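Quick start: read one record
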Amino acid sequence: MRNRILLAAICSLSLLMGGRAAAEQVINRVVAVVGNEVITAVDLEKSIRQTKAQLASLQASQGGAELPPSQVRRLALERLIDDKLFAKEVKRLNLKVSEAEVEHYINRIKKANNLSEEDFVASLSRQGLTPEEYRENLGKDILKHKLIGVEVQKQVVISDAQVEEYFKKHKPEYSNLDQVELRAIFLTAAPGTGVGADNLVRQKAENILQEIKAGGDFAALAKKHSQGPGANRGGSLGKIKASDLLPAMRQALAELKPGQVSPVLQIPQGFVIMQLLSRSGQSGLPLDDVREQIRSKLEREALEHRFREWMKELRAKAYVKIID
């Protein structure tokens, strides 16, 4: 009798295990194949959660309509496919990232944004990430950055002739303000913090800009958030020569009327939002004053274009099948 009971228990356990395995196969089915690797439904669900959190964060700062679930799912799946393609190229080129590199980037991100460990973890949670998942994603992002440098960036070269041609076509955009009075909110991004770091700082800047647009007092917000000169004076920089400002700041101010606020601008030190209070005099800038600014703009555009083309080439060479 005892043996019969034991046999029955073993059979029941086998059935339970078999049923569990079958259930897992249904739940964790394959949704896409990339080369000889698969993307499962569990992988996709995780990517969808992260994509939703990131889109919600962007929507909160920049507005815009919420994407339908089918489009969010597609974005999440495309991201997973791209990750597989990136990983294959990283392996082919034998690119590596160490734990020390990841830790270094995380520390710089926290320092640049004045985040305690608790604040940092809370920020990740709002993006649908655990610290472990973020470390894993950051490691992948660092490798992507290295890969893009090897495969894409080296192919982008902007000639002097291209710079001069662009300048001729866009001369009105490059004007010189003799003197300006303005307030500014500076947010610092530590140099070399890698992929993802600037996004956190930009996100904070966009949130501040939305608060200003909603009627928030620029001076009060500058006192609270600015990490640059004039912060304790409500961001006031007084009256200064426009030629003393960075080219990107001069260009943005040239398009503003007194009282208006600039969009978030990226500068070498991080990001800045400006409010023009007054200005006097305006004349065209010589090419030499804006040459490097134009070159940087053209390089960014060319890099984005080349990156899209490179991704198409990777897709064309790889076997990619979306099952569902």
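The chain has two domains: 30-155+302-322, 175-284.
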